[in-house]
Amino acid sequence: MTGREQISRQIAYLLIFIATILLFAVLKITASVVIPVILAIMFSFVLLPIVRGMNKIHLPWIFNIVVVTILFVVGIAVLGTLVFASLRTILSEYSKYESKFLSIYKFFANRFNLGFDADKSFFYNLQSALGEQFNIGIMMRRMLFSLSANMVSIARNILVIVLMFIFLLVEMHITGEKLREAFEGRMKNRLFQIVKRIMTQVVRFISIKFFISLATGLLIYATAKIVGLDFAVVWGFFAFVLNFIPNFGSIVSVAATSVFALLQFFPHPAPIIFIVAGTTTVNMVLGNFIEPRIEGHNLGISPFVILVMLSLWGWMWGFVGMILAVPLTVIIKIICENIPLLHPVAILLGNKPQDTRLEFTTYEEEDGLKDTVPEKESDTAHP
Predict the structure, then answer these.
(1) Per-domain residue ranges of the chain
(2) Which of 257-295 are b and which e, b meaning 16 or more Cβ less than 10 Å from the residue's Cβ?
(3) pLDDT of residue 134
(4) pTM here?
């Protein structure tokens, strides 16, 4: 490589770095607009295999979309109603748990010399131990007020997401044809490869993750029901949602369910141990054994990169960003693998350099064998 080529490459990397910073800034500023679009895309990825499966039995594509959308909306409505009703019950029965909270805190306060005033509430005693900056009562009131104030906004966003993924599913049926008509030659072939691999890997990851998370939620719900843990629907729902966050999500789910079991069943150890052991086993078996076997291979992303991306997208988009961190990282890695200038970035994102370089070779071989996208293969652009 000549000196001029090195300078050109360095300038290109600098411009890409600046463009990336600007892109993340724009995504941060426009989060309220971008997040519903990204969620709609992810939901369409989850539902696409079902629509395609129905299409294989010669049902019309539009009919499949309508049926899947109705089932999806009904499922969201039923689950939302159950969770909301459980949360209302938690608030209405707060006084029931106040004495339990206080007795448990008194036990640990005496054991570890924490501040305790028998005439004060649980939150007052907890605040005295944590410090004045942690006003638990105010924090809870703010959280509940924020949830109530945002109900209209949440309902609007759900409606927008549903409408978007309906049109996305319709569009995916003709994605290959659009690519074939919009581009020519090697550009069409390279773009087709990128879209195909993004769709294939992300759809596979999201679909498997969704159904593994659903199974996790149902099993946690069943575990809670067996021992009579209150608000089993809430703990199952939390397990389902948090399972989308790699590593940390399942830990938070197990911890939250176990703490509430301690609050409800203390001082009886048997149901507490059952909840701790049951929730831990469900998450470990499904997350560490069944999910990898179904996927067949990992996504080729470094665990350290996943942690960094969880922090980055969490800072940008909050909890939703943490859920979307891995799929978005997969998309970024695939794009970098298909652009020679960005191959170093793909290697840094990847788990093993030799595996990432093997992907480069595969892409180059496919690109060399085909100058245009075959007519029959255009359907694979919507996997």
Answers:
(1) 174-372
(2) bbebbbbbbeeeeebbebbbebbeebbeebbeeebeeee
(3) 47
(4) 0.73
